[in-house]
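WARN no homologs supplied; continuing
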Amino acid sequence: MSITADSVKELREQTGAGMMDCKKALTEAQGNFDKALDILRQKGLAMASKKALRDASEGIIGSYMHMGKIGVLVEVNCETDFVAKTDEFQEFVKDIAMHIAASNPSYVKREEISPEVIEKEKEIYAAQVTGKPAQVVEKIVEGKLEKFYSDTCLVDQIFVKDPEQKKKIKDLVVEKIAKLGENIIIKRFVRFQLGEKVG
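OK structure emitted
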């Protein structure tokens, strides 16, 4: 099957992958556009996991205001000033800030939660389950802990703008790493809500 310049161009626009990578993917997929898209995504995700180990000290601090009642500042890092200045990266940071305003996470990732907080949560969940064998209680507690992470940790939350409500923030980060070709880290955020008690 012949690979047209138009299909290569379209694939490149959708994925941000290089021209030769798009041509190879289309050839491998025998001209099937959707299959080529999957091939590039798999390669991109594999590359993204390698890039996640690289240092990221550039980036931007993004902000979002919601009707003058909720304000968010978020620091998102990448590897170069060049990527930090791209519309795609800036749009991504804005989306993250807007998500934080809407979802009100307490932490960026679960590793930031103190062991004391996790133990306290486990105790509460275990106390809620009565009359079940220990291994069943353990499984229920694990499930409730995962729910706690998805409620309180930014990267474990479902992205508010995902129409299918399946994509987590960490999936979005991996996609951007694959597309922009640099490591990306959501470093920290602060969320203000008018009238909230402080301390």
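Residues 58-109+153-193 form a domain with the Tetrahydropterin Synthase; Chain A fold (CATH 3.30.479.20).
OK
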